[in-house]
Structure formats: C-alpha cells, structure tokens
Design brief:
alpha/beta, single chain, two-stranded antiparallel sheet, 4-stranded parallel sheet, 6 helices
Length: 210
C-alpha cells in the first residue's frame, strides 16, 4: 500500500513518526511538504500542488483552506482515498485522526489507525495487560499506556484521558463552535470510551462511568 502525505510547515511530522513507529508493515512512500509563505487567498492552488501523483491513500495535513480544498478535489478525481482530519470536503474528514472509523477503502492503514481499540486482561480489578489493536497515528494511544500495568481500573479510567491529551498533537485552542470542545478533549473522550468497551465485556463494572 502506497501512502502519500501532504503537510504544511511540519504539520504532519508527528503523525508520520507515529505511523512509522506503530504501523508495522505500513510504509509512507512519499511526503510533500509546503514550508514557504502562502498568501491568505490562493487563486491558483495547482501552482503549489503538482497533480501528477499516484497513491493508494493520501493523508492530508495541509492547513491552508484553498490547498486543502484543491488536494481533496484532485484525489476525488483520481479516485484516491484521502483522509483530511478536521477538514471539510470529499473523502474522509474525521474530527481528529483518532476519530476515523473503519472502512475497507483505507486498507491496512484503516485497520491499524483511527478510533482506538484495546485488548485488555485483568487480575481482579487491576490491569494485567493492555494491547492496542487500533490507535491514533500520532502515537498517543500507545504512549498514554505507560505505567498502567498493575493499576486499578477505576484509576486508569481517570488518568487515561489526561495522558492522551498530554501526548496528543492536536491544537488545544482549536475549539469546535458547535460542540464547544477542542480536538484534544475529543481525543481524550474517544480513548476513554474505547477502554470501557473491553472492560464491560470482561465483567460488569459498577464504577465505570457512562
């Protein structure tokens, strides 16, 4: 699977590193970086993005709205799946990278990255082991699990969202006007919800909040 990344001023570096670290056999075969000054309005975005590219999947971490719209349009015409976290338009536009649902069009990338999924084993009411089945491409899903083995479940459920928010690479000041929450808060929430699923399957935990 060929994955091509478009980024602006290093906006995708953290995710690139996470994919390379936790993606297993996934390889990022190309990175297109736009690191120079851009005007507020770009009338000819094709001057900045070479349309002569092919890929099985495009990860869109561009920031300029005109470039974002153009890249999504190009990928749509080429029938290339494009993931644009926090953006609007065609393709896959999850609120955050860790909000991406499963879809066969996303291949092995979609199997490994997106909405977090855990496999948990317990010893009584303490965590014996946690394995990440699927997580955030920035690596926060894996990084946030440090020091949790042997901890009580109730304590982990409180600490995990905070840890995820600490490792999350999203901009905490970027609040969604509808929900009133930032992508960092959203990341903490989805990870907490993901951990509760295997715990509830193991046994009924009366102290697990809804």
């Amino acid at each position: 699977m060929d994955i091509l990344v478009f980024q602006q001023n290093g906006s995708g570096e953290h995710k690139i590193q996470g994919v390379e670290t936790h993606g297993g056999s996934i390889d990022i075969t190309g990175v297109i970086s736009i690191d120079f000054f851009l005007p507020d309005l770009i009338d000819t975005p094709e001057d900045f993005i070479d349309q002569d590219f092919t890929s099985d999947l495009v990860l869109n971490f561009l920031k300029h709205p005109d470039l974002v719209e153009h890249l999504i349009s190009v990928c749509h015409r080429k029938n290339i799946p494009v993931i644009s976290p926090g953006k609007k338009g065609e393709g896959f536009t999850p609120f955050t990278c860790c909000g991406l649902g499963r879809n066969k069009k996303l291949g092995i990338y979609g199997e490994k990255f997106g909405l977090p999924e855990y496999e948990v084993s317990l010893t009584g009411d303490t965590i014996a082991d946690i394995k990440v089945i699927r997580g955030a491409p920035c690596g926060a899903t894996w990084d946030a699990l440090q020091e949790y083995i042997g901890c009580e479940v109730a304590d982990v459920l409180i600490r995990l969202p905070r840890q995820v928010q600490y490792f999350c690479s999203a901009d905490p000041s970027a609040f969604d006007p509808i929900s009133g929450k930032s992508s960092v808060h959203y990341a903490g929430y989805v990870h907490s919800a993901a951990l509760k699923k295997p715990l509830k399957r193991l046994f009924k935990l009366v102290f697990v909040p809804k």
